[in-house]
Amino acid sequence: MKETKGKRACIIINPVSGGTDKKQVLEVIKQNFPKDITYEIIVWEKPEQKEEIIQKIRERKYDIVVAAGGDGTINQVAQAIKDTNTALAIIPLGSGNGLARHLNIPMNAKKAVELIGAGGKEILIDACVVNNMPFFCTSGIGFDALIGKLFAESKTRGFLTYIRLTLSSFIRYKPQRYDLNIDGKTISSMAFLITFANASQYGNNAYIAPQADISDGFIDVVILKPFKFWQMLPIGSRMFNKTLNTSPYVDVYKGQNISVTRKSSGPVHFDGEPEEMATSINYRISKGSVRAIVPV
To answer: Which of 37, 109, 226, 290 is the most buried (most CB within 10 A)?
Structure first.
């Protein structure tokens, strides 16, 4: 990365992301953070610290803010520095780490820290908004939003929890009809789920939108149509070998301003965080809104 001498950084650590060992992460940072960057550490212990932390980031105008956590932590930090000259660095500590994986951030904390120095460069990435809630990786309605809600309520974390919840919920789930307007084009479809992708994957290398480009100024709209239980494995395999977009059960569109209407309200997830939303949902994109530090 360009000259770092004299720069100021703030490191936000979510100690519960992915069952993280906070002491181990702190030691990695202490041992490997660039010596010519002055930094302070904030441990995000409680949800109610959100406004205080975001205000501090905005007021102090750091050169770099490091999000040490999962996609939810990154979302909050990126919101605070959106449309500023502050750069976002990531130390992936979450269950899925979808945004970090898309940006090729190493999953090893030491190697991720090293990007903040000579090993990294800055690029501009897009931000997306769903009903005025920013997201930077993916948002979804339908089955994946239900799983996001159940995962948030679960006492266990990790990839195996996702698998357990998916298998136990599939039989009972009823697909819905959705009416979409994508930049003026109207589409009506029965869907198992619809994902609005800024990045290519949910996390854990499950590629819901393998063709997505996080800097192209478009949201990739992935409609997964209803399918039978025995087709779950082939569809899942396509996610992991980056060919889901070629499935006969999948339609893909690109858009900048998208509205969705559904029959009933329900959960919507954005960067893994679930929230109940009404029958009308709006998406838009903000091109080149965040400076992200990625491998050279």
So the answer is: 290
Query: What does the pLDDT look like over 156-177, one tens digit per residue?
Result: 777 788 788 888 888 889 999 9
What would the two tokens of residue 150 be?
A: 């159940």
- 24-60 burial code (b ≥16 CB/10 A, e <16): ebbebbeebbbeebebebbbbeeeeeeeebbebbeee
* CA of residue 233 relative to chain centroid, distance: 24
Six-digit token string for 142: 């339908």
Contact partners, residue 191, CB within 8 Å, separation at least 6: 142, 175, 176, 177, 178, 223, 224, 225, 226
Q: How many Å apart are CA 283 and CA 202, to the nearest integer?
A: 18
Domains, the chain: 8-127+291-295 (3.40.50.10330), 133-287 (2.60.200.40)
**174 CB-near residues (< 8 Å, 6+ apart):** none
The predicted-structure confidence for 60-106, as pLDDT tens digits, reads as follows: 999 999 999 999 899 999 999 999 999 999 999 988 899 999 999 99
Residue pair 12/65 in contact (Cβ under 8 Å)? The answer is yes
Residues 105, 272: contact at Cβ < 8 Å?
no
Q: On the CB side of 267, how many CA atoms lie within 13 Å of its CA? A: 18
Torsion angle, CA of 227/231/232/234, rounded to 10 degrees?
-130
